[in-house]
Amino acid sequence: MTxxxxxxxxxxxxxxxxxxxxxxxxxxxxxxxxxxxxxxRGKVIARYAERFMEIGRPDLVRGAADRLADAAPGAELAxxxxxxxxxxxxGIVAPAHGITFEQWANRYTxxxxxxxYPDQVHARNHDDDVSRLRKYILPHVRDVPxxxxxxxxxxxxxxxxxxxxxxxxxxxxxIMGRLMHLAVNPGRLVTVSPLPRGWLPKIxxxxxxxxxxxxEEALLLGCSDVAESFRLFVGVANREGMRVSELLDSDRWxxxxxxxxxxxxxxxxxxxxxxxxxxxxxxxxxxxxxxxxEAQKPxxxxxxxxxxxxxxxxxRKKLAALFRDSLRRAGVTREELFTATAxxxxxxxxxxxxxxxxxxxxxxxxxxxxxxxxxxxxxxMIDRYRRPARQLAELKLGTLQNLVExxxxxxxxxxxxxxxxxxxxxxxxxPHGRLVGSPSLEPKWRNGRRSGFKIHSxxxxxxxxxxKAGDEMPSGDAESVIPHASPTPLGVSRDLASExxxxxxxxxxxxxxxVAAHDGAVERTQPIRGPARATPRERGDARAVxxxxxxxxxxxxxxxxxxxxxxxxxxxxxxxx
Length: 577
Description:
This protein is mainly alpha-helical. It has 4 domains: 3-97, no CATH class; 101-184; 214-405, hpI Integrase, Chain A (Orthogonal Bundle); 456-565, no CATH class. It is built from 23 helices and 9 strands. The protein has helices at residues 35-54, 61-70, 75-90, 101-109, 112-116, 127-141, 151-159, 166-184, 214-221, 228-240, 244-248, 279-291, 300-305, 319-329, 351-362, 367-374, 379-383, 386-395, 403-406, 463-472, 475-481, 494-497, 536-576; strands spanning 3-9, 12-19, 23-28, 255-256, 261-264, 273-276, 456-460, 515-518, 521-525. The strands form 3 sheets. It has a 3-stranded antiparallel beta sheet with strand order 1-2-3.
């Protein structure tokens, strides 16, 4: 129910209106000469307020009340009422009350439209849109009403653009097209967009964007002249493929290094979820987070490198220049990375995603594996990398180096500039399963993980030499290397030989693969069990360990069986004599 009343103050008369559920309006009526005239105007305002509420447009009530209160009696008031009736009939804002292009753009970039119409407008980051609007669009159409915006206005903006790439021209046009489509629905400012289908500029000339080769990335990661935080940033981006902004803005909680996965926050396309990190990436991030327990954003140190007086929080537009400068310091000399031509572009920070996608395709990774990490929604974007991936596979340039070792955080040394005291260490008191004749007890990194080591030894295959080596092995050495070990022809621990051996039926066993004979020697590989708190990958390693132990146990049992047969034959010969 609506009603109108009036109020007088200092010879001025105000129209008062109630509408909706407890909503009130009070407007000065300059033309009113008495309280009765102000009350009649209040009734008119109340009537239109109720009609706008009925069509679901309460946001138009205040604007209509302003124009109705300001209109003079007679022809001017009748004209305002006629226009408001047209608005109510069409369900859109009348041209006389339309907002300007700048006001509509501000409502979009500030997130107001996303909050008001969440089903039609999705919240997103508008930093790039704000920059393009301020530089290229608003100087020409700032005060143009949205209802009066025509194709000629859009063409004037495009004509005034400075020299730029076709991709940038298309992005400027996309902003105007998006705003006018939102003016149709859900804004209902106009009935149809003035920008026709097919108006957006086409990208005819696509430049080739280079990517890093594995050898070049290894040079950068091992360069002590480049900040360690930036080297880690490049290594993670090349191996995981997320957007640069997603990596820079990531929080500590998103890196679950215990289970080995990364949880994605909301990115540019609204994608969420998680994926399994590569083993070396997970290890490198674990080491970095342990070194910096206070850092809530692991890569805030990279933004500190980009800080300037004008942008103390870090100017991300300088990231590409920092990337190229770091490559030069590392000794990378491929000119196409640093110089743009008519057909090729200089290396950008975004091209680390190209490195990930290209190397993943060259390695035979499935498309879904790549899209889970990059967030691409269409196959078309992945197909753009297939040709360079085929060429890379044909050239056989290899794969990326283990990240922990490339950064110098592994065992056996490191690059200059890294603190050896902060490198992960191995527990030398833990048994490494060394066989007799093993050349070294130094533990080595296997795939960048601390779940086990691979230690190789070449032993003579002659049975007599094996037996001699077992007899000559000092018992103290056996006890220090392998607990509970006793001298045996194979020099292995008794806990492995104690497992029941399978019957030798002559059938080939794949589990015997860890032991292979070649060139008169036997090469044996015996990994150890992983840590007590095992990740899914480490549990897989543990299963491989148990299979190897069973294989070694079978060999020990077979050797004992053959040794028994030889002793029996020797006893038979003595009895025959």
